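Supplementary Methods, section 5.1.

A reviewer requested that the exact input to the structure prediction be made available. We therefore reproduce it here, unchanged from the version used in the analyses.
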Amino acid sequence: MELSDLEAAARRFTRECRDIKSLSSNTINAYEQDLTEFAVFFMAKEPGSEIDVTLVGDYIQWLRETRELKPATIRRRIACLKSFCRWLKEQRLAEQSPFDEKNIVVRIPKRLPRALPRSQVLCPLQTGSFGAGIFR
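The structure derived from this sequence is encoded token-by-token as follows.
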């Protein structure tokens, strides 16, 4: 797929998401940003490259190492790309989606709960309002 074909398809995809699927403007803006970022990556690849599992893996690595994005952002970008690739296949603009071949997962590390600051712990105890109104 050529870059110009990719960009035209991305415009059609986001237009369909807005007009037919009635996705929110925030979602459309995020999709446009995500697909533009993918086009920047895709442009650096050899002409005539196809969107396959290897390319998606390289893209994830590029997002992680070069762009230094957090796992949640990478996950959102991959979800957008997955939806776009499915749409390309439905529109017969691509024979297959790389996501058909392999389940690509970006793990988000679990965050530990934060402890309350000492002042927030002591305030209800000092005012005597701890538990007030809970059992009324």
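The mean pLDDT is 85. These observations are discussed further in the main text.
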